[in-house]
Request: fold
Amino acid sequence: MRSSRDWNQASLGQKLAAAAGLAFLHLPVWVIVLYAFTTEDRTYQFPPPGLTLHWFAVAFAREDIWAALRMSLAVAAVATSMALVLGTLAAFALAKGRFRGREVITLLFVLPIALPGIITGIALLSAFKLGGIQPGFWTIVTGHATFCIVIVHNNVIARLRRLPQSWIEASMDLGADGLQTFRYVILPQIATALLAGGMLAFALSFDEIIVTLFTAGHEQTLPIWFFNELFRPRERPITNVVAVSVMLITLVPILLAYWLMRPNEPDSK
Amino acid sequence: MPQPASRTFASFLYGRRGFYLSLLLLPPLLWLGTVYLGSLFALLVQSFYAIDEFTARIVPKLTLATYRQLVSHPANVDIILRTLAMAVAVTLTAAVIAFPIANYMARYATPRMKAFFYVGVMLPMWTSYLVKVYAWRLVLAKQGILFWFVDQLGLAPVLDTALATPVIGGPSLASSYLGMFIVFVYMWLPFMILPLTAAFERVPVSLLQASADLGARPRQTFRNVVLPLALPGLAAGSVFTFSLTLGDYIIPSVVGAPGYFIGMMVYQQQGTAGNLPLAAAFSVVPIILIAIYLSLAKRLGAFDAL
Amino acid sequence: MTPAIQLAGVSRLFGAVRALDDVSLSIAPGEFFALLGPSGSGKTTCLRLIAGFDRPTQGKVLLDGEDVTDIPPFDRSVNTVFQDYALFPHMSVAENVAYGPRVRGVAAPERHRRALEVLELVRLRALADRAPSQLSGGQKQRVALARALINEPKVLLLDEPLGALDLRLREEMQLELKAIQQKIGITFVYVTHDQSEALSMADRVAVFCDGRVEQLDSPRDLYMRPRTAFVARFVGSANVIEGELAQRITGEPRPFAIRPEAIEVLAMTEPPPAGALSCEGVLEDIHYHGATSRWHVRTNTGAVLSAVRPESAPVDGAPVHGSRVRLAWSRDSLVPLAER
Reply:
C-alpha cells in the first residue's frame, strides 16, 4: 500500500517520465555535436561512417564565415552597451517608486519580449520603409538593442528590489550623496546583475535570427549566414561546425550569467 | 570646502522626486517609445495601405483593401486557422509533457536532483535557437537518427503509417506537419516547464500534508489541491507556447510541409512579393490573437505566476 | 538654550492618511529622548523626518536652531542606527565603521585608525576585519552604533535598535547604550514601542498615538500622572475607570486611572481602610509572574480591574479564585484623566 512508503517519494513511473522528458530535451543538441565530426558530407546518415576534424579546418578557412562572425560580434557589442545604460536607468526608476503611469511603463518594458519576434521584425521594417531608412548595421543594432534593454532591465531590477532601502538611507545618513551612495553601496551590489544582464544580452543578440532577418538588408550576421546554408545540400558538415561554434559562443556567457545571478546572497542579517 | 557639483545637484534633487524619476526614465523611454512603439504604429499604418495592382508599389493612402484581401481569400483564412490549430495543439501537448517533469522537480526531487533538473531544462532553453532547429532537421531527416532509432526498435511500420496519415503526414518527418509539431513542442517545452514548476513549488507542503491528514489519497490531493493551485503556472507557460508558435516562421520553413503559416506569409510577403501592407496585415492577426489569449490567461492568474 | 532638535507644527500626510498630525516638540542638547508608541503611531515617521529620509507635508524641522527642512540627510549632522542595522555586506566591520569619514574624504590610514578607536568604545575591536554576516545580532547592533558615532553627530537617532534581540541581551544593551550616551554626552532620540525600555532609559518620553503626541514628560511623571486614558494604559498598564463605574466610585463621571499596585484586594469580610475608595467584584483570574501576581477582578458593572500583589503577601486568608472581593485604594493614588 502506498501509505506504508514515505509518501513524498515519487513512483518509478514518475521518475521515468521526468527522466524521459529531460532526455528528449537534450538529445537533439548532442546530435549536432556528433555530426560536426562526421566524415560523410552529403546526407544525414546515422550512424556516421567515420569521425574527423577535417571540417573544422575547412570552416576556419572560410572568409565569409569570419565576416559574418565579425558582424555578429560588433552588433552584439554595440547593442549590449546601449542596453546596459538604458536598461539600468530604467531599472532604477521602476524599482521602488510608486508613481502614476508606472504600470503602463512596466507593460512597455514587457512588450518586446512578450510579442513574438516576427512582430518586432516586421514593425521595424515598416518603420524603416516609411522613413526611407536603408537597412544596414544600425538597423540591426536598433532591433537588438530594443530587446537587450528589456533583458538588462529585468536583471538589474530584480537585484535592486532585493536591496534593502535602509542601506541606501544609511549611506546617505552617513554623509554620502547620491553619486557616492551609488558608487560605494549600490554598484557593488548590482555589479553581478549588470554583468549577468550584459552577458545574457550579448548572447541573445549574437544568436538573434528572427528579428534580424527583417532588419539586416544585405548584411550578414552569423545566424543569417547559417540560415542561408540550411538549404544547401553540400557543405553540410561546415554548417555543423558553425552550429557547434555558435552554440558554444552563446552558451558560455549564458551559463556564466546564470551562475552569477544565483540567489544565495550574503546579506546584512 | 566648496561642494563638488554632484553634491549640489544631489541636494537639488532632494524632495524633487518626480524630476529625478523623469531624468532616469527619459532616455530609455525615449528609445522604447520612438523605436518600439513607433514601429508598432508604423506596422499598423502599413497594414492600412495597399499595393497598387499595376505598379506593384505601395500606395500611401489609408484603405481597408488589404484587410479585405486578408479575410476574403480562403487561402489566407486557411493559413490563419492552420497556425492557430498548430499553436493550440503544441500548447496542449507541451502542458501534458511538462506536467510529470514539473511535478517531479517541484515535489519529489532532492535539492541536488532539483538543481540538476533545473540546469537540465535551462541548458537546451538557452542553446541557440537556430542550432536547435537545425539539429531537429538532422534528426528527422529521412536517413537520420530518429529513423535509425525507430528502425532499431522495429517500429518502422508505425512511422510509415503515421507519415501516411493525410494532412499531418508527409514524405518524411522533416517535411510534414507531424515533424513540425514535434519540433515546436521541443522548442517551447522549457518555457512551459519552468512556470509550471514554480507554480507547483508555491503550493505549500503544509497544504499537501493537511490534505493527506484529512484522508485524501495522493491522486485526490493532486486533483483537488495541487492542480487548481498550479493553474496560474499552467496559464503562464501556455502564453509562451501559444504566442511563440503563432509567430514563428523559421521552423515551418526549415522543417515543414508545403502549407503556409502566418509567420511564413509575413516573411514572404515583405520579401519576394514586396507586399509589405499584406505582410503587416497578416502580422496584426497574431497580435490580436495573443492579446485575447493574454486577457484569458490573466483571468486565470498567469500574470501573478510569471 | 537652543534645543538640539525642534519640530514646529509638523504634519506628514500620505494621501489621506495623517501619519503625523501637527506635532511640535523640543529636544534639549545631551538629552536621552524617547519616542514611544504602538506601531503606526507616527514615532518612526517622526524620526525619519529628523534624519531627513522624509520631508514634512507641513511644518519645519530645526537642528540646533537651523531650519533643515530642505537639507538632505547627507548634509545634516545627524546619524541613525537602523532597525535592521543596515550594515553593508560587501565591506568588513572596520570598513563599515569608516564609511562616514571615507565619504567625507578622510585618508585611508587615518579613517582606519579612527574606526578602530570607536570599535574599542563598543568593545568590538577584535572583530574589525570580520564580515557583517559573521556577527551575531548584538554585535551587528554595536557595529551600527560605532558606524554612527564615528561621525561625531550632534544627535544620534535610534530606530527600535533592540527589537530583534532576546530579553537578556536587550537588557544588557539598554544599560550599555545609556552608559555610552552619558559618557559621550550627545543627544539620543530613541524610538521604541516597549514602554519599559522607554521608562528605564529616557530622560523624557513623548508618547505617540495616531500621529499626535499625547503626552511629553519625564518617565516618572508619565507613570505617576498620565494625562489621558491611552497613556495610562500604554505606559505602566494602569487601570482606567470611566463612565458608570467612575460615577459610582467618585460620584463624578470623570475618568480616572489607578495603578495596579495601588489597589488592595480584600476579602468581603475585611473592612476597607478609612478614607479609602472601594468597589466590589468577583476574582476571575490570577496570573503568576514570579515576583508578583496579577489579579483580575470583574466589577459589578462588568469592567475588569487588575491589581498587583507581591509574592511576599500573606497566602493564608487570601481570597480564592471565584470569590467575591473588595478592591480598595487611597484617594491620592487616584489620577484624574482628560475627557476623551
Q: What stands out?
A: The interface with chain C takes residues 7, 10-11, 14-15 of chain B (CB under 8 Å). Chain B has a mean pLDDT of 83. Residues 175 and 256 of chain B are 4 Å apart (CA to CA).
